[in-house]
Amino acid sequence: MSLGEHLTELRNRLMICALAVLVLAIVGWFLFPTVFEALQRPFRIASKAGMEADLNFQGVATGLSVRLQMSAYLGLLLAAPIIMLQAWLFIMPGLHKNERKYALGFFGAAIPLFFLGCAAGYWAVNQLVPVLLSFTPVTDGVQQLIKYDEYLALLVKTMLAFGIAFVMPVVLVLLNFLGILRGHSMLKAWRWVIFLCFAFTAMMVPTPEPFTLIGMSAAISSLFFAAVFISIWNDKRRDKKEAKAAQSLSPDQASRIDHVVEPIDAPSRIDEPENR
Fold it and tell me: According to the UniProt entry, which residue ranges have a biased composition of type Basic and acidic residues (predicted)?
């Protein structure tokens, strides 16, 4: 394909993605009441604990703005598999057979892990909000009003952070299968990875009890060690394959000419008389 044909193909894929987001955003518009009730759960937990906090819609058009934002987020989230599929269909013709298997495995594992990370982010927000609200003094005349758009931004950022954290091990495996990063190199950094997992979880889910911290950190760390295990297995398989290829082509065999091409017989020369 020429450059113009590639750009035309890219434009068509992007239009399909935009259309999918638009259609599913309309679906998200009608799902807004259900989602709104689900997002109020952290504040119900805080209210049961005796903390006074109310969501506030400031401005006349804030309700419409929040509903449009929520619909766009839902449309983008629901359209994620379609966007991944269009990306796969765009790059697939330019890949070799083994590269197609790697890319297909990457997309097949990344999509469910991303949604699982988003679910973990939503659960983390349910734990995070009551802890943050507990710092507000509980006295007469003090009431905490929270802007709903700010709360929505916090929720989306947390869900994206956990979604990306759950997808990172898949990226490490992909780099290993492409020959960029070896499994033993990943394993050397296991102490830093565990520390970063605990720090990330402690920052995102600041619960007072340690079981949530240990459980979430162990879940993210286990994904990293699963990526290391798969990478080390792939390194051993690749090394054995390269060793067999090296043995089948030794230096002696590479330099020896097995078949010598016989030259074409030249026409016999007419014998000259010995004595002129």
Answer: 255-276
